[in-house]
Structure formats: C-alpha cells, structure tokens
Design brief:
The chain is of the alpha/beta class. The protein contains eleven helices and eleven strands. Bound molecules: 5'-O-[(R)-(carboxyoxy)(hydroxy)phosphoryl]adenosine and zinc ion (ZN).
C-alpha cells in the first residue's frame, strides 16, 4: 500500500464495538504528524449491567444493544468534541478480534458514514489499539518499547519498535489473564466482570501469602504464559474449604482473592521484566483492562524504578475498551495513507497486522 505522510489537521471519528462496550471518539491531530493527537471526546455506553445477570457477555444482546446505542453515541461524541460531521476527515472502526455480530455493527456504521460523507474508511485492529493506548496522551508519537498487553482475550509481550513494527515475544498458551480473573471470580460467585471484583475483595485486608497458588512457567526461559493450572488450583482449594454452597465464606474471600491476584501478577511481572532486559529496552508499557489493577501497576512501578526503566501506563478509561485508542491507530494509518477498501470485512480472529513471531 502507498505510504504517504500527510501533514495538516486531521480529525477522525472512531468506533469500537468488539465486545460489550459501544464506544465512539473524535480524535484530532493538529499537525498531521501522528504525535500530538488529542482526544476531543470519548464516549462509552457500557452494557455491563445488561450482561451481569447472565454472568458473561451474551453475543445477541451485545449486538442488539450496539445497534441501539450507536447513533446517539455518535451524536454525543460529535457534540462534546464541538465538531460537525462535515469536519470529520475519515472514519475508523474496530474490525477484530472480537464477537462477529458486535464488530459488524460498529464496522458497518463507520463504513456507511464514510460512504455518506465521501471520506476514507480505516479498519483497525483492536489489539493494536490497546498496544498503542499508552502513547495517546504523551504527545511524542509511538516510541520503541516492550509492551505487556493484558485484556480479557489476550496476554501478550510485544517488542514494539515503532508504528507497525511489532514482534511477539510471548503469549498465553491457554487462558488470558483477564479471562482467568473472570473465571476465578465466577468460582467465587462474584459478579461479572470479575477482575475489578477480585481486586476490590483483595483490598479488604486480603493476605497475598495466605494460599500458595502456582506460578506456571515462571522459571522457563520463554515468555509464554499459562493460567489454566492456577485456575484449577483455585478450584481445588475452594473444594477443600468448608463451603456448603460452593461459595467461599466471606472471611476467606479477601485472602483467596489476594493470593490469586498475586500469583497472576508475579508471573506477569517476572516474565515482562525479563523480556525488557533481554531486548535491552529502557521503556515498558502496560495496556488492556487488567492493567487497571492497582497492585499490578504498583508491582511494575516498583520493579521499573529499581531497573531504571520508564513505565508507561494510561488512564483507566483508556486501558479498558474505548474508541480513543481506535482513533489513535486510525490517525497513524490516515497520515500514512493506509486507507481500507469498503469491501474489507470484520475478522473475529484477527491477528495483529505486521506482528512478527520471534
Ligand atoms: O481490555 P478489556 O476492557 O477488554 C478486552 O479487550 O478483553 O479487558 C477486560 C478484562 C476483563 O477480563 C476484566 O475482568 C479485566 O480486564 N479487568 C481487570 C481489572 N479491570 C478490568 N482485571 C484485574 N483487575 C482489574 N482492576
Ligand atoms: Zn479490549
């Protein structure tokens, strides 16, 4: 594809609808250099309350609610940004990975607006959005770093050498870290989504050393993860506790949550810091929903300070699913002339483009 660096003001409207959050953002790059990107608005309509009663995301409900939320959210994102539809230079949307029926709503809406307004359409990978989210508010463009992306669907360590030049150093071989949080929370009969619930219970005086849960593959030389053994260990521990209903007693919950959380964090921190060391990077970024976890942030901050590594984390509303991160990738593609054909489809299993395997 032709790569033309464009200069001058660029304003994009971005849509994210890969799972259960409908999100629309308006982002602007005043100089068109991909560095000083400003988020003019970032609207999110959460469906958590709708899916909570089912203990997880119900795809049909997600898709229907994306349809209902989409246009009002587009209007409010434009209003809050103080931007009219005709001032938008291009439209971008998440194409994958995610739920097909959810992706289709946002992707098709952005295409339709692009056609209607005669402007370019840009298809964006959700994981590239997470990967680059720590750079949105820094104003320096995408800087080389080692990145830990920890979401509900992925756990990856990536060497990021600059926009579009990524190398996968390690990934989970089974459950993603967020998925492990959600599944263990379900065992504890905590509400969906489980990550924030586990963190909340752990913070109620939980002792991270109370239970000794496994740290899978901690000392293996590679950068891959496995969380399914940890999940099973929690299940066994639960079955040994004296619980008639299968639900842990309220007094056991903080220790269980803190011990589980610490087991996940120990592995994430150890492997990622080893990757930073091996690459010789002086910069580490954290992104994805699990990176909202305060204990995880503290553990990384501590290790990075000791190692003289700069730690990049974004605000919590940019860490979980949002459209500003999709707009940020959209701007990077727009200024390089990387527009998408209108025939491009969503891809629920989309891999990160240009992601090389080591
Ligand atoms: O990035 P994200 O919003 O969506 C995906 O792309 O998956 O991540 C959602 C995941 C869920 O598994 C959720 O439980 C987890 O992030 N999460 C957390 C916390 N906040 C969200 N996990 C641990 N601690 C948290 N505070
Ligand atoms: Zn996500």
């Amino acid at each position: 594809m032709m790569k033309v660096r464009r200069s001058g003001l660029v304003t994009l409207l971005a849509i994210e609808s890969s799972c259960d959050e409908t999100a629309v953002a308006v982002v602007r790059d005043d100089e068109g250099l991909g560095e000083g990107v400003r988020v003019l608005s970032s609207e999110i309509s959460s469906q958590i309350d709708i899916h909570r009663e089912y203990g997880g995301v119900v795809p049909e409900l997600a898709s229907r609610n994306h349809s209902l939320a989409m246009l009002p959210l587009v209007r409010s994102a434009l209003d809050k940004a103080g931007v009219s539809m005709s001032e938008v230079d291009g439209f971008c949307a998440t194409a994958g990975p995610g739920l097909a029926s959810s992706l289709l709503i946002g992707h098709t809406a952005a295409k339709a607006m692009a056609v209607g307004m005669g402007k370019p359409f840009i298809s964006v990978n959700h994981m590239e959005g997470h990967l680059l989210s720590p750079f949105i508010t820094r104003g320096n463009g995408v800087e080389a770093n080692v990145s830990l992306v920890v979401s509900g669907g992925h756990t990856m360590i990536i060497e990021n050498r600059g926009f579009g030049d990524y190398e996968l150093l390690g990934k989970t071989l089974d459950d993603a870290a967020g998925e492990a949080f959600d599944k263990v929370a379900k065992m504890f009969q905590l509400p969906y989504p489980g990550g924030p619930e586990i963190e909340r219970c752990a913070s109620e005086g939980g002792d991270p050393g109370a239970y000794s849960f496994p740290r899978s593959m901690l000392n293996k030389p590679h950068f891959d993860f496995s969380f399914s053994g940890l999940k099973t260990a929690v299940l066994y521990t639960l079955s040994e506790l004296d619980t008639a209903s299968g639900k842990p007693r309220a007094e056991d919950l903080p220790d269980l949550c803190a011990s589980f959380q610490k087991a996940v964090i120990d592995v994430l921190v150890a492997k990622t810091m080893r990757a930073v060391d091996q690459v010789g990077s002086r910069r580490l970024s954290l992104s994805g929903g699990v990176s909202c976890n305060e204990s995880l942030r503290e553990a990384f901050a501590h290790r990075c300070a000791g190692a003289g590594v700069e730690l990049l984390v974004c605000s919590r509303h940019l860490s979980t699913d949002n459209a500003a991160m999709i707009g940020y990738v959209g701007i990077q593609k727009f200024i390089r002339g990387e527009f998408s054909e209108l025939t491009v489809d969503v891809d629920p299993n989309m891999m990160l483009n240009a992601l090389k395997m080591r």
